[in-house]
Amino acid sequence: MRTFRLVIACPDGVGIVAKVSNFLASHNGWITEASHHSDDQSGWFFMRHEIRADSLPFGIEAFREAFAPIAEEFSMVWRITDTAQKKRVVLMASRESHCLADLLHRWHSDELDCEIACVISNHDDLRSMVEWHGIPYYHVPVDPKDKEPAFAEVSRLVKQHEAEVVVLARYMQILPPDLCKEYAGQVINIHHSFLPSFVGAKPYHQASLRGVKLIGATCHYVTEELDAGPIIEQDVVRVSHSDSIEDMVRFGRDVEKMVLARGLRYHLEDRVLVHGNKTVVF
Amino acid sequence: MRTFRLVIACPDGVGIVAKVSNFLASHNGWITEASHHSDDQSGWFFMRHEIRADSLPFGIEAFREAFAPIAEEFSMVWRITDTAQKKRVVLMASRESHCLADLLHRWHSDELDCEIACVISNHDDLRSMVEWHGIPYYHVPVDPKDKEPAFAEVSRLVKQHEAEVVVLARYMQILPPDLCKEYAGQVINIHHSFLPSFVGAKPYHQASLRGVKLIGATCHYVTEELDAGPIIEQDVVRVSHSDSIEDMVRFGRDVEKMVLARGLRYHLEDRVLVHGNKTVVF
Amino acid sequence: MRTFRLVIACPDGVGIVAKVSNFLASHNGWITEASHHSDDQSGWFFMRHEIRADSLPFGIEAFREAFAPIAEEFSMVWRITDTAQKKRVVLMASRESHCLADLLHRWHSDELDCEIACVISNHDDLRSMVEWHGIPYYHVPVDPKDKEPAFAEVSRLVKQHEAEVVVLARYMQILPPDLCKEYAGQVINIHHSFLPSFVGAKPYHQASLRGVKLIGATCHYVTEELDAGPIIEQDVVRVSHSDSIEDMVRFGRDVEKMVLARGLRYHLEDRVLVHGNKTVVF
Amino acid sequence: MRTFRLVIACPDGVGIVAKVSNFLASHNGWITEASHHSDDQSGWFFMRHEIRADSLPFGIEAFREAFAPIAEEFSMVWRITDTAQKKRVVLMASRESHCLADLLHRWHSDELDCEIACVISNHDDLRSMVEWHGIPYYHVPVDPKDKEPAFAEVSRLVKQHEAEVVVLARYMQILPPDLCKEYAGQVINIHHSFLPSFVGAKPYHQASLRGVKLIGATCHYVTEELDAGPIIEQDVVRVSHSDSIEDMVRFGRDVEKMVLARGLRYHLEDRVLVHGNKTVVF
């Protein structure tokens, strides 16, 4: 069923819901899902509506025009999206395949509603798996002494493929600040620990050294500060003294792929609203 | 902060949210929380609003009158409650203290927003603990050969104490059908298994015999059919071959008390809407 | 690191551990993992040792001979396996790919220590995915009016491929009793509910009707009685009123594949001991 | 059933299990539970046996003498305890009652196998609750300008009551280094976050600022370095944007009390072996 998704953030106040729901009702809009959140600390209000496209008398452009005055009145940060227009996703990976294979399978079996424009990797290992899915694979090696040319090429490919979302599916390179800025709120990473614990490299080794009883994974938007962007989703799995670092890595892979898949899904369904360094996930 | 809670269920259709939010906005109502749910299968719509009482120009009676026409227009099943009027709760227990002690502590430390009118038990074991909290304790023994007089007395006490909620906190007796009917949607039970598995007595023994790897607890409304009422909340805990039935019972106690406390809280906050044999828990 | 796995079940008594560990120590056996369990109810004792193969002065056949007198003395049901001899696995599937794809990926990335002899399916849908992994695919359609020829062919293939383990990775057919008997303790199924709830078909519909707040999956050995065999592993995921049956099916897929992968891993590592209708999982 | 618990840590090697189980078997010791762990990284071996006291021909002192030569041979760090001698526990609290009430209830209902010698608090709020349980309550206020006299008094009380375990059940003061040293491995704290995240004060505020999707609690041994001692147990609970800091605090209380109760139980049952800054929890 084709729907429009109306996603709004604005300073809180009386009458916002009334105004928006009046607007929708006056055009006979059939709301299939509605979510609201008032944030006490920031004084902001967030809402998301999912509306059957066939219940409305107009398309998305006309919707935008008609709604603009209300948006202006309440100083809304807002967007409306159409499920008929699948988001274009670029996946980035290195050598480890678990997250990539998981996302490709979900896409292949119609669970992930998006177009996968291409896969970019700094290694050539996963080419065959990707190409079996009929998806272009770009091998862009990163020279540790001069990373700039590689990231220029990455940037070019992302643009060429008109990506709206970039997913770092265990891409073991740190994106340069300008790319982070340009695609703020559009680059999703999976970090293999329960952030803010164990920022940076080898988190399972850190976790093992500290003797923790749970290990986790965190899906977050990439910002210029390493592993510090807004968190979309997290989960943990229980470990014990009997688990080696290799066991932790193995358990970790399962949490990583589940958390990344959920986080990406929320993003694709326009369920994630970023405000400051926090997210509202409807 | 004092709020009114407006809880609505009605056949789904266009314009319900608009009508309700218009009504609230026209009276300057400050919505602190709003939840909606459209149930595809039944074609019903459910909503719950929490509104700051001091933002409205009238009290709860005037609200009821003013809102009645809208309720009628959309054939709403609805209620409005005032957090200033704490619900009166009667707790029932037998010999085991874990659920009762947990609820009493939550109430004593102001976590559970209700009045505990009294505790009724078919045993006298827990009297001292209850009375330490300043709550009346009634010992109503149940004669297995003739249970009627006991339940008549229970019924009398529940009425006398003007109970709006009855909580079976490991009360090991089956309530008679007429009591179940009279207090439909108001009697909350904790069953010590993951329903619908292991209905009836000794569920941990049943679970152990079946060799399950998780045991659970289910908080549900009591209906005439044993352990088959609408489910409010459930949870599980992991067990293994190394756990004896005694271990399961011990783990179970923790799940039972947590699940019952959450279920009761949802009920007290008017978050649970029953429709048929299912619940919406906002 | 190559290890031998010594797995023992016998009536409990004094001196078993001493006898076994003496035997191992007298041959300089380096134990890397040891697990014990005394079952009070049945009076049986279970143990599993993992021993470095290179620490022993003999191979697995000589081990068997040397250990036999001890096994006889304590009436042991026992086996010893060699990690150098990978178990041969036959996977069976229907149309749904999530469990099969997950297992194939784990095998492909060296996480599952086994040989996948072939995949048998009653549909031809998943052939290309399987063959990309270099694994033979057999399409054995099942005629609903006469299933016998199909299961004869299945049986023949399983034998031809010398399968030690058969995994029903969402194979939507019920195996005939004789096959269940012949491969008792070797056929692993994933049931898409938290058994013993919702035995049989369409468990998510049953779960939705009952309004449960958690859905689960159960990995178990197949026996003649449907969905009643010894449970190896279970897990659940939280659902709410806002989840449709389609959502439940989607969440369910993730639990199913995780639970099956864990259960199969336990089996391949000789961690599962069946006693009566229950398992010890070391 | 009275048991002895034999707990051993020593450098790993061949023949340890054989020697220990021979010793037990030669004295006809009936082992009810046995656990082993080889730690690859440190090269240490850990084991714990639970033995029926009535199966042995001698008492704990004779056991100690008889076992000493084996302990010496393998350079064991070891202890043997007798379940007939309950450990003496001193509980410390401040104003918040949830952990204290939970532990007291578990003790009162015979779930926690220990003697609670007394409760020490820097506030007088919880006196009545404690005294209802028949346990002495000491109010030792801490002067923020000069904490020494208070901790001298605490130290004196702990000694006077011959405490073997000190539990900081939300005691909001930092113990002085000399006390931490003197009672190394005997002081158990509950920290209200998933350590190592959010060390120090107000972890829920820190968690809310960071926008995490899970909050946790950590039970650990107290060392001189704040919140950095060996971790015994951890758990988490899911939160979302809709949860205020007050909600997090409330959810947190439930995790805290569960994690502390589990951690303390493991300690009382001699299941926790500390090695370096990590624990083995059998």
Automatic annotation (TrEMBL), chains A, B, C, D:
Keywords: Hydrolase, One-carbon metabolism, Purine biosynthesis. The active site is at D227. It catalyses: (6R)-10-formyltetrahydrofolate + H2O = (6S)-5,6,7,8-tetrahydrofolate + formate + H(+). The keyword Hydrolase applies. The keyword Kinase does not apply. Its EC number is 3.5.1.10. Pfam families: Formyl_trans_N. Pathway: Purine metabolism; IMP biosynthesis via de novo pathway; formate from 10-formyl-5,6,7,8-tetrahydrofolate: step 1/1. Residues 5-85 form the ACT domain. Signal peptide: none annotated. Belongs to the PurU family. Catalyzes the hydrolysis of 10-formyltetrahydrofolate (formyl-FH4) to formate and tetrahydrofolate (FH4). PANTHER family: FORMYLTETRAHYDROFOLATE DEFORMYLASE (PTHR42706), FORMYLTETRAHYDROFOLATE DEFORMYLASE 2, MITOCHONDRIAL (PTHR42706:SF1). This is Formyltetrahydrofolate deformylase. It comes from Pseudomonas lundensis. The gene is purU.
